[in-house]
Write a sequence for this structure.
């Protein structure tokens, strides 16, 4: 049997996407991989505490007061030491340096709470409500050097209801995020897909 692929999770806060991935890895719903390391740029992130509680290898690499390049170098070293194959940003609220992106070419995923390319950046759900869209959702995409821009791996849509506020819409999207992220990881690790221009497509069978 081939060795398990190693995931490295980066987070800054609550960590519900990380926990959904961890649950699916633990239950076997997301087979063939393991979480090798969880890194938080904030020592007090609830997601980091949750990772410790589960007995996972979890470290704080504080970003506050440090230059991005220097902080990212420390994270790159940590991920490489842990043999990480795929980096998953799960509510990691800091821009990555070009060096970081180049260290893991097409091996960094992010989840964003909108149907990209609509509403990149912060407060995507508020942006969607303010714009008046009737369909919202989430996107798992590869990370490139532009914000919320890399090739889309998978999207899930949800309706926007007339009486939605940012909280109710965020919750509806978050439920789908928790499903979408593991599906996207499985798709990437399967080796059955490849990037073709802006598209992530199923490769012809050999
Ligand atoms: C999610 O909405 C995700 O799409 C965005 O940040 C939020 C993180 O939530 N990138 P959590 O920390 O995974 O609960």
């Amino acid at each position: 049997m081939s060795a398990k692929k190693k995931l490295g999770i980066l987070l800054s806060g609550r960590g519900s996407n990380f926990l959904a991935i961890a649950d699916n890895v633990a239950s076997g719903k997301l087979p063939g991989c393991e979480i090798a390391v969880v890194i938080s740029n904030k020592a007090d992130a609830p997601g980091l505490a949750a990772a410790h509680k589960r007995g996972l290898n979890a470290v704080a690499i504080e970003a506050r007061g440090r230059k991005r390049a220097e902080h990212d170098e420390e994270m790159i070293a940590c991920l490489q030491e842990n043999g990480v194959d795929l980096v998953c940003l799960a509510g990691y609220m800091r821009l990555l340096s070009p060096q970081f992106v180049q260290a893991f070419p097409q091996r960094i995923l992010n989840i964003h709470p909108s149907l990209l390319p609509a509403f990149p950046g912060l407060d995507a759900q508020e942006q969607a409500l303010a714009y008046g869209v009737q369909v919202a959702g989430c996107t798992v995409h590869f990370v490139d050097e532009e914000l919320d821009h890399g090739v889309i791996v998978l999207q899930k849509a949800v309706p926007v209801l007339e009486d939605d506020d940012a909280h109710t819409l965020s919750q509806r999207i978050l439920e789908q995020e928790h499903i979408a992220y593991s599906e996207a990881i499985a798709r990437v690790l399967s080796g059955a897909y490849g990037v073709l221009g802006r598209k992530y497509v199923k490769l012809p069978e050999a």
User: Anything to note?
Assistant: Residues 194 and 200 are 6 Å apart (CA to CA). The first strand starts at residue 5 and ends at 11. The helical segments are 16-27, 46-53, 68-81, 98-103, 124-131, 166-190.
